[in-house]
């Protein structure tokens, strides 16, 4: 079993050894099940430990260049980390070096161990990690954009409803409000809310308090009456008796 410093998960047919405290993970293909040292517990465990310990980028340590796939350690340190004897570590290292899985350079102070072909083991991880990260960023961006669009749409709808209520309160002949709102939305494609209100104010200023001859608000909007010129003379003409047919047309908002 792995030591307490990492744990194992299986994703899409691959093992991922994850370090504690957000220290990342390594990629481990399931082909390791058929690896020649897989049934050698000490050797297999040491090799996986080396994959976990190896630097994933080039680095420097005490004036020494540490390449990607390499790390600084010692026999005693590995013995302590894996809770096994120094002799067991030496034996496993010898096996892994014989099959060219690892190389090592020792001094009187430390041992530098390098995983041969480290990129062959970990390049897939890097690609998977970058792809996952890019997909996550794309998803987050899309969600953010959609949320922003939804927020903007909600704000536009609220503002439009608020502006329509202002129009509705000023237009005294209050009939078919739902139809009038649709007509108002359509009218905004040709004029601004300010232009519509200014035209409505000119209309109201020349109207007689008697609302009998007022057009339905939807009709007034659909006919773009905000752009008409109004006068008292026009008002008086519109107040003259009209045919019953025209009266019915106005009442239906046609």
Features:
three-stranded antiparallel sheet; 15% strand; 52% helix; Arc Repressor Mutant, subunit A; 9 helices; disordered N terminus; alpha+beta; 254 residues
Kindly describe this structure.
It is a single chain. The protein contains nine helices and eight strands. By secondary structure, it is an alpha+beta fold. The strands form three sheets. The chain has a three-stranded antiparallel beta sheet. It has a three-stranded antiparallel beta sheet with strand order 6-8-7. A two-stranded antiparallel sheet has the order 4-5. Helix 1 (41-53) crosses helix 3 (86-98), helix 2 crosses helix 3 (86-98) and helix 4 packs across helix 5. Strand 1 and strand 2 (14-19) form a beta hairpin. It has two domains: 6-125, Arc Repressor Mutant, subunit A, CATH 1.10.10; 149-252, no CATH class.
Total DSSP helices? 9
- Give the C-level CATH assignment of the largest domain: Mainly Alpha
Mean pLDDT: 76
- The total count of strands amounts to 8
Q: How many strands, which pairing sense, and closed or not: the largest β-sheet?
A: 3 strands, antiparallel
Characterize this entry briefly.
The protein has helices at 41-53, 75-82, 86-98, 118-170, 177-187, 193-205, 217-222, 232-238, 244-252; strands spanning 6-11, 14-19, 25-29, 59-61, 64-66, 70-73, 102-106, 111-115. With 254 residues, the chain is an alpha+beta fold.
Protein topology:
Elements lengths: L5 E6 L2 E6 L5 E5 L11 H13 L5 E3 L2 E3 L3 E4 L1 H8 L3 H13 L3 E5 L4 E5 L2 H53 L6 H11 L5 H13 L11 H6 L9 H7 L5 H9 L2
């Amino acid at each position: 079993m792995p030591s307490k410093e990492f744990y194992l998960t299986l994703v899409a047919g691959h093992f991922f050894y994850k370090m504690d405290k957000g220290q990342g993970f390594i990629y481990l293909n399931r082909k390791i099940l058929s690896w020649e040292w897989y049934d050698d517990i000490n050797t297999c465990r040491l090799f996986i430990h080396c994959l976990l310990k190896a630097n994933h980028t080039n680095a420097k340590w005490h004036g020494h260049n540490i390449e990607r796939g390499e790390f600084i350690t010692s026999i005693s340190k590995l013995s302590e980390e894996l809770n096994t004897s120094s002799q067991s570590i030496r034996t496993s290292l010898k096996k892994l070096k014989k099959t060219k899985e690892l190389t090592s350079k020792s001094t009187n102070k430390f041992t530098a161990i390098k995983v041969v072909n480290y990129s062959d083991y970990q390049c897939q991880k890097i690609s998977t990690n970058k792809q996952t990260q890019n997909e996550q960023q794309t998803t987050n961006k899309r969600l953010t954009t959609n949320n922003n669009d939804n927020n903007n749409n909600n704000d536009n709808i609220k503002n439009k409803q608020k502006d329509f209520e202002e129009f509705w309160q000023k237009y005294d002949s209050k009939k078919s409000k739902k139809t009038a709102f649709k007509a108002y939305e359509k009218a905004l494609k040709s004029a601004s809310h300010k232009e519509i209100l200014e035209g409505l104010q000119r209309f109201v200023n020349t109207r007689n308090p008697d609302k009998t001859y007022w057009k339905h608000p939807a009709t007034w909007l659909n006919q773009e009456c905000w752009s008409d010129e109004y006068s008292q003379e026009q008002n008086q003409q519109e107040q003259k008796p009209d045919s019953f047919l025209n009266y019915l047309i106005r009442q239906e908002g046609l």
